[in-house]
Write a structure and sequence with these properties.
With 506 residues, the protein is mainly alpha-helical. It contains 19 helices and 6 strands. Helix 1 packs across helix 2, helix 5 runs antiparallel to helix 6 and helix 6 runs antiparallel to helix 7.
Length: 506
Amino acid sequence: MKKLIILLTVLLVLGSACKKDFLNVDETNPNTASAVPANLVLPAALNSIAARIDDPRNYEFCYLWFGAWSISNGYVPPRNLTEYNLLNSGYQAIWDNSYLILQNLDYVEKASMASTEKNFRAIAIIMKVYLYHNLVDTYGNIPYSQALNTAGGILKPAYDDAQTIYEDLAVKIDTAINLIQKATITDDAVGSSDIIYQGDMGKWARFANTIKLRMLMNQEFMSGRATYITGALATTASVGYLGAGEGAMLNPGYLQSTNKMSPLWELFYKQDNSQQADGLGYYVANQDACTFLTTNNDPRKLRFFQPITGSTTTIQGNYFGGYEQLPVPQTSKIGPGLLQGYNQSAPILTDFESLFLQAEAALKGFIPGNPKAFYESAVTQSVIYMGQTSSLDPSTYVPLTATDAATYLAQPLALVNYDSSPDPLKAIITQKWIALNGISPMPIWTDYRRTGFPDFISWSIDPGKLSPTPPVRLFYPQTEVTTNNDNVLAQGTITLTSPKIFWQNR
């Protein structure tokens, strides 16, 4: 792992940040100081997380492999993806950028050790957990206990066991929540440095607890793990989880300027609102998603995807890895529910993902509450989110409401109406899959690996594919192989199908 120089990192991320005061050349340059204040590093680090999570190119394999998006007939689909044959040079930015951001967050944590800086320290800990758990879900064993100790001379950190990391991350969530609960009105306010919750530490505590719930539910199908999950949830049960309207949505004050717009929007549109060359023309709908939305009369259908040329209601897509690709005019582009505007907030963890997690946890008896109520609230919040006005909409557009969601949920369909479903878990995970389409790729991959849902995905038919279904993990990246090879080799033989992530009990 490369030695990371914190001050240079801060300079780089601040230079790409989008908050107006970050761009004011009349302000004092914090990089000339002997120590950069935590309140300057924190928003830059948070903004970097959004750039990594919400740019689909970083996790496009999740969308392409699992029925969400596909590739236009105007392009040749990448063979490494249709063959399920990734190399360790592919997607290495996931690893490199995560550890870069972790260094910045670690700096914030260490620079916030004063008794009045509990909230800054708590946020840094929470977001470190967020990134580390994402890395474990992608690679399994990773550098952890020694990973950020470059100042101590450890440039080739040893790898830690994935399950051990997960368990320590759960404890760190408890620590962060404890810091928030102990903070008083005399503690330093996070204020505008918090570009997610604007200093609302109650929401930060519930966000932290939702991350913890996500990690624990990932372990639901592990043999003999129920007691651990129940005990871990009990330690912070009184805090609760993110509810409707409380999603972690990041917005530093995006500007209609190159490299300063919302990450998802900027993949598809330029600052003058013209289309990016390889945006809307490259990614199109996947037919699996189109079929689900159409057959279930989903009100989000024309929000996820645009209608094909010559129609106002029909959506169609390509099967990723299939040989027969529809002509370009007959495939649906990414829709206005996802592309809302240059200044749209970047989802870090939506309220509807939290509610789907709570539905699953309540169904399995891990938390109190009515799983049907959580499920219906999750679907409702997804409908409202996707149905809000986009800058691409005509002036006559009427946003979707809770009434539209109720009409949808009332249909006696197995994957829509909770009471009509013979398998409520299948309904929960499948609705979560469609809700997170274009919004949060990693849970889509993770949920399939642990539950097998959705169970109707059309896999690649490329005869050169290396396995019947997509990989269960990524290779350690070439950058890590080059700089920390002994510790990579110590992990044994790694393939795209083995070893599985520790919680993958199927």
